[in-house]
Amino acid sequence: MPAFRSNDEYFHAVEDLIARLKAAGHRQAAEELTDGYRCLNGLTDGWALLLEAVDRVQATYSEGFSRGDQQALEALRAAAHKVVYRR
To answer: CA 50, CA 35: separation in Å to the nearest integer?
Structure first.
């Protein structure tokens, strides 16, 4: 699982995944992820809201994603979890 070298790299990965999900017809999943991404405000609670959105997308929609998109979503989840829980 790739580690992100910076917040900007992470943000680009979120944006890229959202674009791929939209292009693949997973509009609802992309909207959920976008809503969580909009919560980022530099504070831990914003990251927690993003993590919740990623978890919802993973639990509800990811079965229909390509393997690459599933892996990207998991990498985003793992990084957000690390920020929220500082582990």
So the answer is: 8
Q: What is the DSSP letter of 3?
A: P
Are 77 and 13 spatial neighbours (Cβ–Cβ below 8 Å)? no
In a domain, 46, yes or no: yes
- How many domains, in total, are found in the chain? 1
Range of the domain at 24: 7-85
Q: How far is the C-alpha of 32 from the C-alpha of 4, rounded, in Å?
A: 22
Instruction: Compute the distance between CA of residue 40 and CA of residue 44 in angstroms, rounded to an integer.
Output: 8
The pLDDT value recorded for residue 1 is: 45
18 close to 37: Cβ distance less than 8 angstroms:
yes
Query: 3-class DSSP state for residue 85?
Result: helix
For 26-45, give the DSSP string. -HHHHHHHHHHHHT--SSHH
| Residues 32-81 pLDDT 10s | 999 999 999 888 899 999 999 999 999 999 999 999 999 999 999 999 99
